[in-house]
Amino acid sequence: MGKNQAAWLTGAGAYPFAVKDGPRPTPGPSEIVIKNAAVAINPVDWKIQTHGRYLSTYPFILGEDAVGVVEAVGSGVTRFTKGQRVVAHCHGLMTGNPSNSGFQLYPVVTEALAAAIPENLSFEQAVVLPLAISTACAGLYQKEYLNLPLPSANKAEPTGQTVLIWGGASSVGATAIQLAAASGLTVVTTASTGNHGFVKSLGADIVFDYRSSTVVQDIATALRGTKFVGIYDSIAEEKSFAALADLVETLNISIPVASVLPYDKPTATFAPKYVLAYAIIQEPNHHVGEWIWGKFVPEALANGRLQAKPDPFVVGTGLKDIQNALDIQKRGVSAKKVVVTL
Fold it and tell me: Which CATH number covers residue 230?
């Protein structure tokens, strides 16, 4: 194992990251060390850096998406061996331990949030998935959220149910579409007109332009008469919340709504529930994480049922380029995921 280095956030609002020695990577029980080959950037990364949210201890390392080769395995690890190609959702924000974060050369990750990847999938492609998978699953499959049937890596049995995924071309939305389709649901989604073909290629059945002045009425018309079971808001901004509140009122229904960010104006009929990605490996939803990361992801990546989408937008090489990558993500990207090769 080489020397570990990391991109450190040295304090609340500190800019840029400081690249220096990282924590000593030692796997505990049920953990693996990855020799990191690439990282992806998520909005939560720059939001924490800019606003100082979530963290009380500094210096800290951010980063939720890592991919590479298994360098070491801890006791009790059954699914991985040294030298294996893996992708992982790094859970440092859950543990509060910077060793478990992605922006370093040797992250220590839990076996429960990692999966083997096939040889034909590049590291840069695979790394777009991890946090999006856990976040999508937390909203789709937990009992207190949409409670959909777990997805099949083979042919899904149609359930006759319909789900609405707002923001289908986003990282979480693109993954949620694929998962819901693999669970046998009819998927209605929104995307800009330029991304309609993209979301349909992922398994969306009906797509609406979220910019259309009639989008709420159009979706309501499409959903009437269906067995409509839930909404996943993968955008969770004022405009999406307003449109979805209007939709629920138009349909005059009460329905589960999962959201990637909290909503501060809940009503009796519209009360989106904020999802926590790593809840799928905690009780009482441990079975969700076991099924998704232990079975569905490796099998569905191997047979092509799960596509690594949206495509990577590689913006640099090395820890020194991670700050610039956050800045690019913050300015906004469409149907792409910002990636840095290490």
Answer: 3.40.50.720
